[in-house]
Amino acid sequence: MSDADRGLPTLAYALLGLLARDSLSGYALAQQLRDPIAHFWEARHSQIYPQLAEMERRGLVIGANAAGPGPRPRRTYTISAAGLATLKAWVGEPTRRWGGRDELLLKVYVSWTADQSATISLLAEAEAHHAAQLGRYLTERDACHRAGVDRLPPSDPRFTGYATLRRGIGHERGRLAWCRWLMRRVGASSESKVVANRL
Amino acid sequence: MSDADRGLPTLAYALLGLLARDSLSGYALAQQLRDPIAHFWEARHSQIYPQLAEMERRGLVIGANAAGPGPRPRRTYTISAAGLATLKAWVGEPTRRWGGRDELLLKVYVSWTADQSATISLLAEAEAHHAAQLGRYLTERDACHRAGVDRLPPSDPRFTGYATLRRGIGHERGRLAWCRWLMRRVGASSESKVVANRL
DNA sequence: ATCTCCATGTAACTCGTTACATGATTTT
DNA sequence: AAAATCATGTAACGAGTTACATGGAGAT
Q1: A148: phi > 0 → left, psi -120 to 50 → alpha, else beta; which?
Q2: pLDDT tops 90 at residue A72
Q3: Half-sphere exposure of A4 (CA within 13 A, CB side)
Q4: Phi then psi dihedrals of residue B40, to 5 deg
Q5: With 0-12 CB in 10 A as exposed, 13-18 as middle and 19+ as buried, what is B96?
Q6: Secondary structure of chain B: what % helix, strand, coil (to 5)?
Q7: Residue nearest to nucleotide D20 (CA to C1')
Q8: How confident is the model at residue A66 (pLDDT cuts 50, 70, 90)?
Q9: Which of A112, A125, A163 sits opposite B159 (nearest CB)?
């Protein structure tokens, strides 16, 4: 351990978490973290490549080159024993960040300053986004159920993937229900205003 | 508008959103954004003070000094008409970030590499955190109901604050239920293992 | 011919955190 | 006497985004 496990950014654990399941190239890791699968972490390739190099320097991953279709060889990374130990130890450490930044919530908080139409379109956009995401998650969940992933033990990587997927579904459902409740409230108040104007 | 509304970080809208409700000092704004009230945005004072200065330079807020208890005078900021217009316009713009980073979810995704005891303590910590947060939110919601804030129109800042609070409650409840489901699953698998060992 | 995907990397920049710094008033 | 709260600010660093750069393979 000595030096390898101090001061790692959370991104490093996300990469180790994916590499613990399967050896992947930087490109493949970037694909996984572009639009996060089961709603947990995202990163761009420009952040991932230097981080992988740093992790290799620390002995947490091992890179191996192979001829690739691009101008540079493809580098496939494999997690080391030290990397796996670092990852395992991290799970037990206290969680520092519990979210705390949500652009949609901030917009709604501020929406009293805007027109009803702007608020409605904001909520409609959010509803469409969450409905689409929920649809993708449900498809994935059904595939998990058909494959019996939900009955696997928690020591199986497929089960923990299923667990985070379930939270993703709960999250999208909760946001959808809230968007719809708010739309009803915002719509209802403008309707009653219209009714009042008719009188 | 000219120059004032281009390239503002989300933090600026969070600050404008609070200042649109009431004139506040940088310190008071930092208090509000330390541990976010209704779960939407957080920031430290070292980020807030320079951002307020930049916003004043752009004419979005107006600062006024008054004698304070510290070595420097207290500076109270008021939103300008330009600031309010900028805030209002922002609500209608498409939302760029939908979250995407969640340390607890990442830890659970990775927890198959760790001991059951580490996973259990991780989930217990999360459960305690979310239960405490939910308690605070429910207290606040009850106060809102007693004050009739839930029956206010969506053009009232107190109503939009209540709306984000409701989402906060839904969020905490959803996470709590999920933590408990996962704890049962993790606990159950270790129990069945014990039973299997007894046979 | 142009576009997208594969596959890597760097440079410049913005955003966010931790730590340093000052000093009066109030609480323990 | 020590600590916390009020109240502001800066410096150094770390994390994250956008844009630049290269070039082959396959699709439209």
Answers
A1: left
A2: no
A3: 19
A4: -145, -30
A5: exposed
A6: 65, 5, 25
A7: A46
A8: confident
A9: A112
As given in the structure block, the two tokens for residue A112 are 């009293």
Q: How far apart are CA B51 and CA B12, in angstroms?
A: 7
Q: pTM of the entire structure?
A: 0.90
**Residue at shortest CA–C1' distance from D19:** A46
Residue-by-residue DSSP string for B15-71: HHHHHTTS-EEHHHHHHHHHTTTTSS----HHHHHHHHHHHHHTTSEEEEEE--SSS
Contact of A123 with A183, CB cutoff 8 Å:
yes
Closest Cα to residue A146, out of A126, A127, A163, A162?
A162
Residues having Cβ less than 7 A from any atom in strand C: A 25-28, 30-31, 45-46, 49-50, 52-53, 68-76, 96, 101; B 7-11, 42-44, 46-47, 69-72
Query: With contact defined as beta carbons under 8 Å apart, do A146 and B135 qualify?
Result: no
CB contact under 8 A, B160 and A118: no
Q: Is the dihedral of CA A10, A11, A16, A18 positive or negative?
A: positive
Say yes or no for a CB contact (<8 Å) between A90 and B97. no
pLDDT > 70 in chain A, percent: 88
